[in-house]
Recover the amino acids of this structure.
């Protein structure tokens, strides 16, 4: 009995320490092990498989909400609900060009940050270690009330390419271009 | 007779003008007589001296007597720097003075002096042990040095010891020999240090020879940069205490006048004190902007129409092999056509400097962050620093500049050792933190340049955690070191002098 009481006390203590903040919290440094939580389930509406076609290519991207531990700074690591994205791109003949759907969640190449303070646009970033470290930013938002159409804007960063990169010195047409830039995705 | 005087005047004028370099500041030459009393010579012009040193030292490594923290005497090692040699003539003998860099931290200053007289070489280590008062009050003024000056043979045997107060003193066992304290009473420059001291610098009639020519690495020859001054506390008049020489990498050498050449103590004959200052980013930055080639390349990417492009532009600086006698060269680079990719050169040999622009908006409508990216930092550490070490002899000679419409920034490194290569995993962790933080700024509608600087300095301090990695905000005429000062404080900005 004593042990159970002790366990409850420890549990309460731990719960009190792990502060929770709603997802749309801005301008503060989150305390260690606090939790930026999607209390209104905004992110859940984006979950699912989305499809788009561009430049003779088709992309299927799966968006999923996860509780991610942002442990970049040891002393201020915290949890946050974010969206992650995994995608598969094929050409018109059905050849798979890019596929990272089997990667584990924590290593997903597309990770979300948060919504803008005064809009409903959600931002994500893309880092692809398999493509010589391509990086870019993505903004998504619904454009219909049924939330089946997703506006997607992707901006690719400038990247330094070194000789160990497989497309070093190749023309633009032979360089990987895995993501569409400005397109509407449809929910599957 | 008058014709003779006129001819000598013309010859001397010609020598004086011809032998000084272009950086000579006319406003600071009111009293530069003493500046003409030595010359900086390339080691290639003194093979006999260099061979003598090589034979008498362990490949230019010497033993030094030093005081430990507990006050006990200990032996440390020091490296004789041969790329900056000061030659003076005194009483018919020629003296060559070399800075010696101790391997361990010590307040003492060491020079190695070689005296050439009648074809005979005599070498000694000169050790300056400054008093606390002197260090506190004016550590640049060896004309009024206080502390102890000792000389040693190259095997570490002490020869002389001289206690100095305000530039005067006497030999050990003969404390009164040097005369009374001189005091800073002279108004006609450091030659007038009061009576009785004897042998005050300068005391030779040598009018100097050609300057520069001290090369030895890819950093080119040393050139006179400027004079250092002190101020007479009584009259307020400034007098020159020494000279600062600088090479293309921004490595600087101080040559202080003084060194108290008390002949009767068989003491220091050269009358100069050479101190290398190897890790001073402010001086390096100043030197870079004084280089007209560098400045032209910088100007080329520091203008509104470049920031208005939809892609980045840049230049890398390649240093030549050591001892090649060649000057560094610049090669322009631009985005690969139709891509957002910048290619590093296939041949990276000697590539130690990089400058590039971050435009306001790219072809995709993206607004790049107006400061370095984690990839820029990784390129600096993985490529520029090792090349700087191989081609200039120091990691500290690497630099990276980014120009933006919000300000221009320069990466510098101040430690002697390399922090190691940044692997892809670490880079990805850096990028994840960096992207997340800057996106939070954008989402929070707080993307000001002050906040951009805050995030980047936090990145340097708390994410990379690389000791010696520093960022400076630069313009062509000024620079300031930026440091993270906590989330609630603005970035700490320390202007370069």
């Amino acid at each position: 009995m004593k042990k159970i009481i002790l366990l409850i006390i420890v549990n309460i203590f731990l719960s009190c320490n792990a502060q929770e903040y709603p997802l749309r919290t801005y301008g503060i440094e989150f305390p260690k092990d606090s939790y930026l939580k999607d209390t209104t389930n905004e992110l859940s509406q984006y979950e699912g498989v989305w499809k788009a076609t561009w430049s003779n290519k088709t992309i299927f991207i799966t968006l999923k909400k996860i509780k991610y531990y942002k442990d970049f700074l040891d002393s201020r690591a915290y949890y946050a609900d974010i969206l992650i994205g995994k995608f598969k791109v094929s050409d018109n003949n059905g050849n798979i060009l890019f596929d990272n759907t089997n990667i584990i969640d924590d290593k997903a190449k597309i990770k979300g940050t948060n919504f803008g303070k005064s809009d409903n646009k959600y931002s994500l970033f893309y880092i692809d270690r398999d493509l010589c470290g391509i990086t870019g930013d993505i903004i998504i938002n619904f454009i219909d009330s049924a939330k089946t159409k997703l506006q997607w804007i992707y901006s690719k960063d400038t990247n330094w390419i070194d000789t160990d990169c497989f497309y070093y010195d190749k023309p633009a047409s032979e360089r990987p271009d895995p993501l569409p830039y400005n397109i509407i995705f449809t929910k599957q | 007779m008058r014709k003779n005087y006129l001819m000598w005047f013309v010859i001397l004028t010609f020598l004086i003008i011809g032998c000084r370099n272009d950086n000579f500041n006319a406003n600071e030459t009111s009293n530069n007589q003493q500046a003409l009393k030595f010359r900086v010579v390339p080691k290639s012009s003194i093979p006999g001296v260099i061979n003598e040193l090589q034979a008498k030292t362990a490949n230019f490594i010497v033993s030094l007597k030093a005081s430990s923290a507990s006050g006990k005497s200990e032996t440390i090692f020091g490296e004789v720097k041969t790329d900056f040699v000061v030659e003076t003539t005194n009483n018919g003998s020629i003296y060559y003075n070399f800075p010696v860099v101790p391997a361990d931290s010590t307040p003492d200053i060491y020079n190695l002096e070689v005296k050439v007289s009648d074809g005979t070489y005599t070498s000694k280590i000169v050790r300056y042990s400054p008093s606390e008062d002197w260090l506190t009050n004016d550590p640049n003024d060896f004309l009024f040095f206080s502390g102890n000056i000792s000389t040693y043979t190259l095997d570490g045997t002490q020869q002389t010891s001289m206690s100095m107060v305000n530039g005067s003193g006497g030999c050990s066992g003969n404390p009164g020999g040097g005369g009374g304290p001189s005091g800073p009473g002279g108004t006609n420059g450091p030659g007038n240090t009061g009576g009785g001291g004897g042998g005050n610098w300068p005391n030779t009639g040598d009018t100097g020879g050609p300057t520069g020519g001290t090369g030895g690495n890819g950093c080119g020859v040393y050139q006179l940069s400027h004079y250092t001054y002190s101020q007479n506390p009584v009259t307020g008049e400034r007098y020159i205490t020494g000279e600062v020489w600088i090479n293309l990498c921004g490595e600087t050498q101080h040559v202080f006048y003084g060194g108290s050449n008390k002949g009767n103590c068989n003491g220091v004959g050269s009358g100069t004190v050479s101190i290398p200052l190897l890790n001073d980013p402010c001086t390096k930055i100043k030197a870079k902007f004084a280089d007209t080639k560098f400045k032209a390349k910088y100007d080329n990417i520091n203008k509104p129409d470049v920031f208005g492009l939809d892609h980045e532009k840049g230049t890398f600086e390649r240093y030549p092999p050591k001892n090649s006698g060649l000057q560094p060269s610049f090669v322009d680079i631009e985005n690969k056509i139709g891509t957002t990719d910048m290619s590093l050169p296939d041949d990276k040999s000697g590539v130690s400097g990089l400058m590039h622009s971050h435009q306001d908006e790219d072809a995709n409508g993206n607004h790049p962050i107006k400061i370095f990216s984690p990839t820029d930092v990784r390129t600096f550490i993985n490529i520029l620093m090792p090349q700087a070490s191989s081609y200039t002899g120091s990691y500290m000679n690497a630099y990276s500049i980014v120009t933006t419409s919000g300000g221009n920034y320069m990466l510098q490194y101040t430690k002697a050792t390399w922090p190691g290569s940044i692997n892809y995993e670490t880079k990805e962790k850096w990028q994840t933190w960096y992207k997340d933080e800057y996106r939070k700024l954008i989402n929070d509608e707080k993307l000001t340049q002050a906040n951009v600087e805050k995030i980047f300095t936090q990145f340097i301090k708390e994410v990379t955690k690389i000791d010696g990695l520093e960022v400076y905000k630069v313009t062509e005429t000024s620079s300031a070191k930026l440091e993270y000062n906590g989330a609630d404080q603005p970035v700490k900005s320390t202007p370069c002098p």
Q: What stands out?
A: DSSP finds nine helices and 23 strands in chain B. The two ends of chain B are 50 Å apart (CA to CA). Chain B has a mean pLDDT of 77.
